[in-house]
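User: Some background: our group keeps a shared notebook of sequences we're curious about, and every so often someone picks one and asks for a predicted structure to add to the entry. Today it's my turn. The entry only has the sequence so far, pasted here. Could you supply the structure so I can complete it?
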Amino acid sequence: MSWTFSRLFLLAASVTPALGFCGAHTHLDRRAGEEVPISTFGYTGAVGPLLWTQLDPATNGLCSTGTNQSPINMVEGQFQLVPASDIELTIPDVEGATFENLGSTVEVAMEGAGGKFVLEGKTFELQQFHFHHPSEHVDNGVSLPMEMHMVFTSEAEEIAVIGVYVDLIDSPTVLQLHLLPRRASSTLLETIFSSVGEIASPGTKTTTKPLVMSELVTLLKAGSFQRYTGSLTTPPCSEGVAWSVATEKLLLSKATYQAVRDVVGFNSRYPQNNLGEENLLTIASSAKVAPPVEVPANSTANSTAVLRR
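Assistant: Of course. Here's the predicted structure to add to the notebook entry:
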């Protein structure tokens, strides 16, 4: 895809309805009183991304045929850079939120908490946020330890997702505390993950301690967003999702990261093709298999003769 075409494509793309959402079968499509649903898809083996379509061909077809799939490598020409000052984002602090293990991720339910994201004049309400290990989007060729996805929906059931990279930070030494400006681990993430051990098994849930969401909002408003229209990163891989990947990163201590990693495991879809280009699985399925190479009957004797020279 040429730079000019990709730029026009990004600017012309509108926020269109998408069926499902990133982190399918989570808080958005649950009936009142339903227990924590356990995902039927995964990230390795027969339930992994290469075979998501086969898990439900009637629903998941776009996973192997869609041409605007997520995640992608975030490089110039694939997104439109928008200053955070041009976007309205408000998320009130909460006294505590439901924290669940869905088998495919861990998720904080935020439906009805008052989080709002205004995008191109449309208002989206925060439903949940969840985590991927490692990051699904690739930051100009670099994978980060984790990525948080904040899922918003509009009254028209359109979906907008804010992606936030999570990087690691060492615990500071006594000397560093006194001599160097300290880059601190996110209080929000540390608070959420302090109870990750309570939901170590899929299908379990707990309630977090009070969450200071203003910390996150302040961080995101200090940078920019890389905007593009892509898809859900989980089945059914529906397209028309308005992605905003933040340039500001959350920080997490290595000890907490290891605790989360041990619960979440590997749960990232591989980077997809450039926007508008053929799906990688379509390319793979149509690739011609090279014919077997015929080996002359006397090839072994010839090789032996060469070695003796």
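Suggested note for the entry: DSSP finds nine helices and 14 strands in the chain. Residues 1-21, 23-27, 300-309 have pLDDT under 50 and may be disordered.
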